[in-house]
Amino acid sequence: MHNNQNQSWESTSDAAVKEAAGLNDEQYQKKMQRRKEVQEKRIAEAIPEKGLIIVNTGNGKGKTTAALGMVLRSLGHGYKVAIIQFIKGAWEPAEKNVLSVWQNQLEFHAMGEGFTWDTQNRERDTETAVAAWNKAMTYICNPEFRMVLLDEVNIALKLGYLNIEDVLAGLEQKPQQSHVILTGRGAPKELIDRADLVTEMTLVKHPFREQGVKAQPGIEF
After folding, report:
1. Three-state SS across the chain?
2. Catalytic residue positions?
3. What is the model's pTM?
């Protein structure tokens, strides 16, 4: 329902922009005034606050990066945040170094041991994912943490390292005002249906796929 409303809102906005392009100045001003009144009415009727379940998925880049933008906003507001990495934990990302300046507000746990083709051990990958989920639950259930980022957890779900029913049940235990972000390609339908905000990153071009360019500092890590 939320996704359909968002899509409808965006489609209406796009149509309005196209229509406005053909208006004269007076018509444009009147149209924008009507849009302003509609927007102000929507905002006035909106719920002031609600803890969200947020999913960033899709084959395109930017899922974790977008989530980290929300993390930075939360830290800037003085909130406590926890980050749990499920897959890429073998890396030492630059983001971790930058975020260390908020060590009094941030808990960062790199629980994964690398990509699945690095470990080549399904049993160990499953044990690692379960341990990461158990660690995540200590923060999800803690009302002191306003935001919890579960980085690449969708991959663990897709590969069967975690049970979707267990994850959905865990998310139901979060405090009312807390946000949980789940990133990674291949988010299961059950998670998408439960989420409040879902963004799918679409891959159009990628320098590694088209040009053979390796992951670079400042771009991928």
Report:
1. CHHHHHHHHHHHHHHHHHHHCCCCHHHHHHHHHHHHHHHHHHHHHCCCCCCCEEEEECCCCCHHHHHHHHHHHHHHCCCEEEEEECCHHHCCCHHHHHHHHHCCCEEEEECCCCCHHHHCCHHHHHHHHHHHHHHHHHHHCCCCEEEEEEECHHHHHHCCCCCHHHHHHHHCCCCCCCEEEEECCCCCHHHHHHCCEEEECCCCCCHHHHHCCCCCCCCCC
2. 59, 61, 63-65, 73, 115, 117, 152
3. 0.79
Give per-residue burial for 150-183: e unless 16+ CB within 10 Å, then b.
bbbbbbbbbeebbebeebeebbeebeeebbbbbb
Query: Has residue 11 got a pLDDT over 80?
Result: no
Q: Tell me the one-letter amino acid at 21.
A: A
Q: Is the dihedral of CA 214, 217, 72, 78 positive or negative?
A: positive
CA separation for the pair 195, 42 (Å, rounded): 21
Closest CA to 109 of 142, 81, 128, 83: 83
Query: Alpha-carbon distance 146 to 24, whole Å?
Result: 47
Question: Would you say residue 219 has pLDDT above 80?
Answer: no
What's the CA gap between 173 and 63, in Å, rounded?
Answer: 24
